[in-house]
């Protein structure tokens, strides 16, 4: 299996300890897949500052393929993280940095390359919603993280091109989450996942809801928990579909959720999304 993250990368700058860590939804997906023994790649936009250099160096160390990335002169994307009442919270950033003015526009060469993968994962922070139809037309699975920055119009516009939608729903009660997932399914996504923080996750496949409680541990850092949960979930799901196409779909979803929760718990024992912090 080969997978690719297409879109956002940042450094997460922890202001209270002056340390920055590589991150971003699309980039994290590629890194977590690599950690899980899957051949992975990342395609995105880098600046030419120390943050960009550090991310590139880290991805090369991890042997994630970045051969199709763009490099521009300017500031790389970053998100600012601070400690508020003991919790790490995002308090701003530069909205993708150089990616804002130089969004990823997929060329025919890019598409031929992406076609060699089984799943392409992107996000709402990737500034490439206009490119989603190109990914869908390739015939591979497309997954997308809306985080908590979605509205009905955006979901309706994008979900026709997305096979698996991921939404952060911690602010909603369970009935609201169920209604939201059903709505997103009606817009075109075949699997819809709502993550709810300490309340766990909910998946809807058009016929039933599947619930997963988190694996409770004493976390070092919860950053990346949602991305790692999704990565393990979808990789386990895809492997199960490949190994046993006629197998029980419900059982596969249940086991995939459990595997995702296990991996997310491990991620919470590491600083940053996956470590590799340096001072700034």
From TrEMBL:
Against Gene3D superfamilies, the record matches this protein to: 3.40.1190.20
Q: Which positions fall inside the Carbohydrate kinase PfkB domain?
A: 19-242
Keyword entries, A-Z: Kinase, Transferase
Q: Which family does it belong to?
A: Belongs to the carbohydrate kinase PfkB family.
- What protein name applies here? Fructoselysine 6-kinase
Naturally occurring in which organism (per UniProt): Neobacillus driksii
